[in-house]
Specification:
about 400 residues; alpha/beta; seven-stranded mixed sheet; three-stranded mixed sheet; globular
Length: about 400
């Protein structure tokens, strides 16, 4: 007779598989948007989009992003770019100032240091950019990202086709060589798939601040970052949840290859953990139940492997049941990741799923616990996150 723990593990694996099947179906139902040339209905009086980029010590990466923006396909009304320098100690500000005259779009530099009373961090930088932006749509990416030529046009097509849309989340692909970069890319592909599918199910859980857009009017309607402005992370997902509460039918995922933003994977395990701890630090502050419940389910499902191996050692008679639970977990991952990886142009990464799974349980538990600790280091700053009350 199998033990209670084995029975619970089998039930968890079955529930996880059912959830991944549900997400897969939702992903496949998402429309593939076309980046067709928008019509003249986009206003011409001012820029259609304000592209907002928070930058801290990004002199090495910003030239690539600015070059990509200079190659954007035209959209009616065009776009402006606002770079917010968050107290950089390198030549980020000088680079932007020198580039402004050479690019074919309005480029403005804002410095948080010009206002010593202003908070620091990405959320403060974005808030400053929004206050200075002139367009009705705000389009965000990171200074270390690369964007395709049809990126702005893809967003413009959705904004024009669906006037009720308030928030659009886009796909992100990690790039790099070697096993660590591949495993990071596979992990992020899963997050992209879950985030897109949950939007498709009208129960948004997550998005990526490196590729998203929202209406300025919607941002103002929910009072922007008010309520979580003191939390350093979460400038993307907290806003997603707030907007969904007020505009329940106004959230979309931009499923088109022309909108895939690329960014480099973390080069070392230490920097990877620092980034993931920053991501994990915000989950305890979620005000909606769905993201928390999903995070707990995913963590427990990934712990099936190390805990199952330990149980198998003490109860070899449960081995077949434990093996079955493992296979159900891997099947769930494969069913969701298969179509997502094909969309991202990385179908070969699917073979890495069993390898990722071997280390993912302890890794996810460590990241979750460190995220609860309340602090982390990022871009040379020691950040202390608020405890949930």
């Amino acid at each position: 007779m199998m033990s209670l723990f084995t029975l619970l593990g089998a039930g968890l694996a079955t529930a996880y598989l059912e959830q991944m099947v549900r997400f897969r179906r939702a992903w496949q139902r998402l429309p593939v948007h076309s980046a067709a040339t928008p019509s003249d209905s986009i206003p011409e009086a001012g820029p259609a989009f304000s592209i907002l980029v928070a930058a801290r010590n990004e002199a090495a990466t910003l030239p690539g992003l600015l070059a990509d923006l200079a190659r954007q396909l035209p959209v009616r009304g065009g776009f402006e770019v606002l770079i917010v320098d968050d107290h950089s100690t390198d030549t980020t500000a000088a680079l932007v100032a020198q580039t402004a005259a050479a690019v074919p779009f309005p480029l403005r530099l804002l410095r948080l240091a010009d206002n010593p009373t202003q908070p620091t961090g990405k959320k403060a930088a974005i808030a400053a950019a929004i206050a200075a932006a002139r367009a009705p749509w705000l389009l965000l990416t990171d200074a270390d990202c690369r964007v395709p030529a049809g990126w702005v046009r893809a967003y413009a097509a959705v904004a024009q086709a669906e006037p009720a849309v308030q928030f659009i989340s886009g796909p992100v692909l990690l790039t790099g060589q070697g096993w660590l970069a591949t495993l990071q890319g596979l992990e992020l592909a899963g997050l992209v798939g879950v985030g897109a599918a949950s939007i498709g199910l009208n129960a948004p859980t997550m998005c990526n601040g490196a590729n998203l857009a929202y209406r300025r009017a919607a941002f103002e309607a929910v009072r922007g970052f008010a309520g979580n402005e003191a939390i350093a992370s979460g400038d993307d997902e907290f806003l997603l949840h707030k907007l969904h509460q007020q505009f329940s039918e106004g959230i979309r995922f931009l499923k088109t290859p022309e909108a895939v933003v690329r960014t480099a994977a973390q080069p070392t395990l230490r920097r990877l953990l620092a980034q993931r701890v920053r991501w994990a630090s915000k989950w305890q502050h979620y005000q909606t139940a769905a993201p928390r419940q999903l995070a707990v389910m995913v963590l427990l499902a990934n712990l099936l492997f190390p805990l199952g191996a330990l149980l198998w050692w003490f109860r070899p008679q449960d081995g077949l049941w434990i093996l079955g639970a493992w296979l159900l977990k891997l099947l769930g991952d494969g069913l969701l990741l298969g179509p997502v990886l094909r969309f991202l142009g990385r179908p070969g990464w699917l073979t890495w799923v069993p390898i990722l799974q071997l280390a993912y349980g302890p890794y996810a538990l460590l990241v979750g616990l460190l995220g609860l600790r309340g602090g982390y280091e990022w871009k040379g700053r020691q950040v202390r996150a608020l405890k949930n009350k």
